[in-house]
Each structure stands twice: as structure tokens, then as C-alpha cells.
Amino acid sequence: MTQTPPRPLEGLRVIDLTRALAGPYATLLLAGLGAEVIKVEQPQGGDLARENSPYVGRDGIVVERRHDDDISISHLTRARGKYGVALDLKKPEAKEIFADLVRTADIVVENFTAGTADRLGVGYEAARAANPRIVYCSLSGFGADDLDGGKAMDVIIQALSGAMFSSGEPGEPPVRFGIPIADMLAPVFSVIGILAAIEQRHRTGIGQHVDVSMLGALTSFVAIENWSAMAAAGMASRTGLTVRRLSPFGVFECADGYVALVAVHEKLAGGLFRAMEQPELGDDPRFATRDARVANAHDLEDRINAWARLLPLADVVARLEAEGVPVAPVRHPEDALVDPRVVARNETMPIAHPDYHPEIDLRTAGVPIQFSAARTGFDDALPVRIGEHNDAVYGTLLGYTAERRAALAAAGVV
């Protein structure tokens, strides 16, 4: 009988103080890797993501919530595999409850504006006092020590990082990434930091504070290109759909769509020129070497576009594949999410309302990591209602009596 392999982080418990996207995505990854995540929400309102349109419910998918049991698709995505409790962190009694939770845990994750967790009495020092082994991660816009940075949303970080001027054409408006890249990138670094701190704890027995900023995470990616060196060399930093310092490299227009291709070195460039039925371009001094192709990128890209615009996308792809040139059609996200390769590897996964319309095909992010002796995925926990698992956590885990739980609820603490 084949046993189901374990998930790598089974046995670790996370206290999740996060909301919106960046923090909840970090704890979602931890949950998908097997950690037990206890998500703490305010009793009134809960996570901001609960109010994100669109919703799914008894009427299907709708823009505005029509019924109390309509659920935001954002919440369905981000709350998977988490146990939800309600706790008003502004109440004095919450500090003791937080400390009790931390004593049972390995990890705390928060993404408040810098300084807020300390003001609430749930910051790193409070957590460390309760449990010196705790690994406490602060994910903020500008760093846990930047008390003047203000609130940070993805579009703000995209603007400040320079990322918006890394795309688009010269002289055109800045380009906002269509996915919340800062909100997704910083959590990945947070999980790396958390796991590194857990590994260090194995040696020292002591936890620590992990501090990740959204601005730092995204700007570090922007910095992978040396913008000042390109400017000094007279190279344009904004080149739209192509990367001219690697030409030909980028996206080109076909008669009925767009194609991405890469032909950066001699063999690939030769294959491109043969696919274009213009092999003589390989002997043209303007295109015969890699540096020459970069220096004459405008001319070369114009020739590729002129060729591709006359042909159907499928024809262009087939011709380039036949010559061994890396190529792909530019797909709509709806098509990309159901690629059999990512579906088979659970890199995208189905989600559904627990009570209505299971036939609606909704797909969202999985955990895009494969293991030879472990698995990823989410258990059945899902805090549909705020405080869904109060009794299980406060009663079974912490041992609070029914009377104490009732008193806390009557006082609005839970």
C-alpha cells in the first residue's frame, strides 16, 4: 500500500497576523508546504481581502456581494489551508491571548505598517518574551525600522522601485505590471528568510526577527539590470516589447497574434534567418555577429516584424520550432492557467465555494515546487466565516474553557 508522502513543513505552527495580499501570500506558501497556519482576523470586518470583488456564491460569479454567504475569490485563494480565529488586537486582553498562541508556535508573520505591531503589543519583543524560539517575520513596505514610510500598496512600490519605467517605449507613460508583482515577490523572500531562520534555530535553539521590505525586494530585481552602464553606453533603457541589448529577443507581431522568440547567439540567429527565408542576413555585416545585431537592433526588429506580420501565429511558431529557435505564442492568462503542464504539477489549482456552483471553473495559484520525497498542497481548513475555528484553537489548542471563551466573546475580544 502506497503511503501519501508528508509535506516538508509539517509540525511547524504559524501565527498569521497578516491581511491583504503580501503577508497572506507568505503564509499561504507556508501552509502549502505543510505548516499549520492560524490566521488571526479582527472580529469586525476581518481580512481586507474579504471585500475584494469579484465574489462567488449562490448566484455564481458577481461583481457586487448580493448575499451574506458570497465569498470573495481573493479570500478563497489566500485563506486556503488556514485555521481562522477572531481576535481584536486593540483590546488589552488580546496581548495575553497572543502570548498564549505564540507559546505554541514556531513562526509569526505580520505585515502591518512599520511600528503598528509594537504599538498593539504583538511585535517581536512581545513574541520573543513569550517564546524565545519564535521566528518572527515582519513584511512591510519599507522595512520594520522605517517608521516614516507610510502605507505601501503594490502600485506604490512599483512606482518607487523604478519597475514601471523598466517596461514600455521611450517617451511613453510608465507601465504598471498587470500582476501585483511587489505583493508577490516580497512574500517569497519572506519565506526564504523564515526558513533560513528556522535552520539557524536548529543550531542555536533561538529564534530571531526576519525583516523584509516590499520596496527592497522589488528594487533588488530592478537592479539586476545595470541601468547606469546602459545609459553610459548610449543604450536605451526602455525598449518596449524587446530587449535590444540581447537582440533579437522579445515579442513580435504576427497576422493574428504575438510571438515571443529568442535568437541571441549565432546558431539561433541563423535558425531565425532561415525560418524567415532570408539566410543571407547571416552574412550581412549588420547582423553577422552578436554585437552587430545589438548595434543594429532597430533595423533587425523591423525586419522580423515585417516578416511575422504577414503570417499566422501558428505558422511563425512552426517555422521557428523547425529551426530550433526558442519560441512561444503570447497567451491570455486564462489559457496559461490551464496549460496541462502546470495543471499536472499542481502549479495552478482549482478553488470553489464550499456550498455553491462546484461546476464553475476557477483556478488559482498552487505551490510551484516539486519534491522527490514530499508533497505540497492545502488541507481542508478555510475560514469562510470570521472566527471559523475559534473553538478549535482557543478551546482545544489553548485549553480555554467554554465559560472563558464566552466571556471573551461577550467583551468583543474574540
How would you describe this protein?
It contains 17 helices and 14 strands. The protein has helices spanning 22-32, 73-78, 93-103, 116-120, 124-130, 154-161, 181-204, 214-222, 227-232, 266-275, 290-295, 297-308, 313-322, 333-336, 340-344, 390-397, 402-410, and strands at residues 13-16, 36-41, 55-57, 60-62, 71-72, 82-86, 107-110, 135-140, 209-213, 249-254, 257-262, 327-329, 348-351, 362-365. A six-stranded parallel sheet has the order 6-2-1-7-8-9, with helices on both faces. Strands 4-3-5 form a three-stranded antiparallel sheet. Helix 1 links the parallel strand 1 and strand 2. Helix 1 crosses helix 7, helix 3 crosses helix 5 and helix 6 (154-161) crosses helix 8. The mean pLDDT is 95.
Give the arrangement of secondary structure elements:
Blueprint: E1 13-16, H1 22-32, E2 36-41, E3 55-57, E4 60-62, E5 71-72, H2 73-78, E6 82-86, H3 93-103, E7 107-110, H4 116-120, H5 124-130, E8 135-140, H6 154-161, H7 181-204, E9 209-213, H8 214-222, H9 227-232, E10 249-254, E11 257-262, H10 266-275, H11 290-295, H12 297-308, H13 313-322, E12 327-329, H14 333-336, H15 340-344, E13 348-351, E14 362-365, H16 390-397, H17 402-410
Parallel strand pairs: 1-2, 1-7, 2-6, 7-8, 8-9
Antiparallel strand pairs: 3-4, 3-5, 10-11, 11-12, 13-14
Question: What's this, in brief?
Answer:
The chain has 414 residues and is an alpha/beta fold. It has 17 helices and 14 strands.
